Every structure is written in structure tokens, then in C-alpha cells.
Protein 1
Amino acid sequence: MKPSYKDGVSTHFSDESYGSTTWKREKNQAGLEPDNCFYFENEARIRGHLEFNLEEDPPPDLALEIDLTSKSLNRFPIYARLGVPEIWTYDTGELKIYQLQENNYLEVTNSSIFPMLSIQELPRIIEAFRLQGRRAMRQAVREWVRARF
């Protein structure tokens, strides 16, 4: 069952951010550190872990890359080897969504994690509240989500 979100929190399962954790899969000789990553569907499986082993633990459900100084597209094959199902990239006010399909990432218009939200609207909100700080930005995003449910 796909998640249902209200107030930015899933009504079906928890979510967890693991920031810029380094992810490695020895068997596939792959490793990287996203700008941020999140668990949604697999949050319960990794809850409480202090260390991760991608040979046994699932990869994050979503990786976020901020491409202001360098582009992340050349890292997509590594993400594919790690098995991360969805990547969002943010660059100069534009947010793109990529989903893993047959070991390659394809750009899509809707997130499989948040299928009912028009994710491309987020950069406008981020930019409008960026100078007010993270707390104001998070509150604005929560209100935006609330207005859509």
C-alpha cells in the first residue's frame, strides 16, 4: 500500500531522515553520501540502527541531491547499484524526480512516495522562506501539504 500523508507525516507508517549518511554495498562495489536521504516504507526495518549494512538492510527510499555546486547525474549508476528507488535533485529553483527502473533512473513528473503532491511546487516555497530559516520553511511546507489533503 502506498503511503498517505497528512501534515507531512504518513498516516500508514513512519518516516526517518538519515541526513548525509555514507551508504556502501561491498558486493556491488558501490558507495556514496547523499545530501539527505529518507526512509518511509522501510522505516520500521531500520528503526534504531546506528550502523547500516546494505547487504542486509534496505537502501533509503529516497535520496535528495542539492546540485548547486556539482551535478549528481554521474552518481546515478552508483545509486542504482545501491538500489535507491527514488532520487530528487534540486538545482537553482528546479526540483526533478527520478525513479529507478530496470537499473536506470528515468525522470518522472510524480513521486511514487508522494503521488498526490505536485512536488515541483516545492522550490517556490523553499525560495520564499529560505531567508526566514529552516523552521519557517518546514512550517510552510507542512501548511502546503495540509492544504492538499
Note: The helical segments are 43-46, 76-82, 122-129, 134-147.
Protein 2
Amino acid sequence: MVRITLPEGQEHDPYGYASRNHAVPIMAAAQAFSSSVYRDSGLSLREFEGARMRTAQINGCQICRTFRAARDAPAMFSVGGETPGRMVTDNGPPPDEAFYDHVASWRSASDFSDRERLAIEFAERFAEQPKVLSADERFWARMHAVFNDGEIVDLAHCVAAWVGLGRVAHVLGFDTVCLVAPAAERAA
């Protein structure tokens, strides 16, 4: 259920309606932040998607759990029908569906690299235990063993965007209507 009042005919795009009619500058800044995450992240696509999916699971966002960056981001962030030049989707091969299926069980799944596993763990702890995460020196030693400082800052801002904006979408009910049709639906 959408938690804002929508005029008749706007039920199909509650986020779009809100962005045009409520807190317009804030909504524009949120969109710019989200776009930058997908355009400018230097993380591998698998690291990015592992952290994004774990955040989506924690937030409960319906759209985010079915979203696949390689499939959906180019259409979502296109401007005037043209896809942006550079995107995170250029950062390596896309994960398969088994990858997404195993994100929730990342501790015991064998199909993640050390970096992917740490990105997922970081996202989970950032979303659920930020105070504990910030003080866990053993975790930070593991992070610094495989990520440089720039990559850590990149990952932290990606997760911040997903946690914050995903929770807004879920709490306000904007995640009940998909903003990007899956590739099969767009082709039909």
C-alpha cells in the first residue's frame, strides 16, 4: 500500500508522482545520488550486486530484490532513451541467478570470492549494526587486506544509498509498483 495520497491515474508510478509533486529538490538529489552509484562505482559488478542484494533483503524492498543491475540499470538510468556512457555494469560479468539466490546465505555459500563475501558482510552489518561495524578492528583488518581506501569509501556510499533510498521506497510503499519492467516485459 502506497503511504501518500495519489490522484486517480497516478497509481502506476507513485515514486514518479512524489518526485514531481513533493519535496522536489530532495527527490531530485536522491535520484542524482542513486544515479551516481550506478554510473560511478568502481566495484566489480559482482561485488556491487552482492552488497546491493543483501541490502535489498534487509530493507524488504520488493523492487530492489527483483532488480538486476546488468538487466535493469541501463533502462532505469537512461536519459531521453539514451543509456549513460559508463555504468557499473561495465565492471565485469553479471552474476547468474544462483549468485542472487545465495546472497542471504553468504556465510556458507561457496560461490563468492573473498571480496564479494566481504562486500556482502559489509552491507549486512552497515544496515543492521553500524556501531558494532565501526568498532570491529578485526573486520577492518580483513577489509584492508583486499580493498583499498577508495574502494571502501565507494562501497560505503553505495550501501548508504541502498539502505536509505530502499527504506524510503519500502516504507512509503513505492516498492509495490516496479519502476523498471523486466527485460522480457520490455521486449513484448
Note: DSSP finds eleven helices and no strands in the chain.
Protein 3
Amino acid sequence: MNKSALRRQLKSARNAYSPAARRKAARASLRLALRHGLLLRARRIGVYLPHGGEFDAQFLITQIQLMRRECYAPVLPQRGRVLRFARLARDTRMTRNRFGIAEPVDARPLRARQLDLLLLPLVGFDHQGFRLGMGGGFYDATLAFMRHRRSWRKPRLVGIAYECQQVESLPHDPWDMPLDAVLTERQLYRYTSRQAL
């Protein structure tokens, strides 16, 4: 199955979750994140603000802020595809980008390489840790610098998804950056031994 067909199938599966099931899954994923110490070693954590059926990361965002970690959300560039990450706090002023997604307003957003941990939305993921996104290429462009690294790969990349979004294998391209882990409502899947999670 090609990427477009997979996107349609997997988006349909995640959109089938009721609001109550979404809240239950979000709480379960937070418990797993805490049990596995996912947030402990990171000071600067990149998150996403859910849109269009994406896994609700708000419980994780609240926990990050309660733990007094620095929380950052993506900001679309005026041109190109490389995202920056703006500080997200309870009193942060917000705006909407051209896709209607909320973004924090920050005069000096960070580059991805300045983050310790990046939580990414996804449409699908496979047993090798490859991620299927929405197809815009924003995260591919943002994380392109990581393909040239030989050792430490900061930030650690953790996808956030429903269990139903997992498939055996995804078609992937040479520029696709595999994830270090995926957190679902049932499990924290780890894919690499290059870093401790």
C-alpha cells in the first residue's frame, strides 16, 4: 500500500475514537510516560498542539509544565519547511497559523537541535520506528541535520499515537528519520539503543 492510501486508512482508524476514548488513551499514555521516566532526562521538550484527530498531547504538556521543564511548540516558517519551536507556558500569547493550528508567539524560537526531547504527532508508525506524517515534509526538513550525525542524536524523537496506528512496515525514503520510541495508550515502544530513554 502506498503512503497516500495508508494515510487515509490510518486517519480513519484514529478518527473513529470517541472523545471519551481519546481522553482515556491520553491519561493512559501519561501514566506510561511517567512509569518509564520519559520526561526525566530532558530540560527542553518540544511538543505539538493536536489538530485534526491527532493524539491529544495536552495531559503530557501539562505534566511537562508541572515538572518545570521548558516546553516548546512548533511554529511554521514564513518560507520553507524548517520548523522553529516557541516557548509554551500557561500565559503564552497564541495565534493560528495558515493551517489553523495554534502556535505560541515567541520573538526568539529555538531550532530543533536545541531541544533535548521532541514529541511528534504521526499518522502511522511501524515496527522499525519509521513514522508516517501528514505528508507536508515539515518534520523531515526540520530534522534533516540529524542524518549527518554519527553519535549523539539530540533531540530524542518520540512519536505519540494510538495503538491502532501501528502497522507492520511503512514505505520509507532515505531522508526519513526513524524515531527513538513511540508512546501509545498501551506501550512505550523503543527502537534504538543509541540513547537511553
Note: The first strand starts at residue 44 and ends at 46.
Protein 4
Amino acid sequence: MKILVSACLLGVNCRYDGGGALNNSVLALMERHELIPVCPEILGGLPTPREPAEISVGRVRTISGIDVTEQYGRGAAESLRLALLFGCSAALLKERSPSCGAGMVYDGTFSGKLVPGDGFTARLLRSRGIRVIPESGIGEL
């Protein structure tokens, strides 16, 4: 199976803080599946590192109040384009991210509180019939 994967889960240093989130269970998937790494934030034109951002009332804003909704939308669209180009039937995404969060995201107050919802990329992928799995659901693959 071809799976779109948050690049940070493969150890790519593309997270907002300049680090990665290497997950050895995700790496192990390469033995059975073809993984297509993406970072929607970078595809949307944001730098690494960058300010933390959260979704609030349908918009994405950084901790200093800068609206980056357009970049998140562009990154989601580019991620979808790659998923379709490579024929991905599933996406394994970083949890809680305003791009990749699947099922739960931060509430937009930068307080660490989670609320039900999807990040921009997760929501767009689901809307196009691509199965979205948060990293904690890796056992589903």
C-alpha cells in the first residue's frame, strides 16, 4: 500500500521547533508499504523553525497572532495533490498538528488544551476519501 506520511515522523527536522518526531514504528512500515513523506507546512511556504500555530474559529494563527491560514490551506492542497499523484490510499499523520492532527487538535488558546477536530490537511484528505490515521493508530496498518 502507498501511504502519505508526516515527514517529521520519519525523523525529518521540519516541525515548528526545527526538530523531528522520529517514530521507529513508522520507519518499520517501510518494510511492508511505500511511504510518501510530506510536510504540509513546508509545502505551504512556511519556514523551519516557525512560531507555533493553532486553529481557532476556522483560522490558523501563530502564537504572536499572525494569520497563516493561507499557507496551511496551500500545504493541504499540495499534500492532497501528492497523495493523488502517488495513489496513496491512506495517510499516517502527526497528532494534534493544525495541519496533520486527526481527531484532536489544540483549541487555539496555546494553553495545551485539546478539542475534537482535524487539521487542515487531515480534513482535506478525508474529504477526498483518503483514510487518515493518527500516529497512535499505526496498528491499523
Note: The first strand starts at residue 2 and ends at 6.
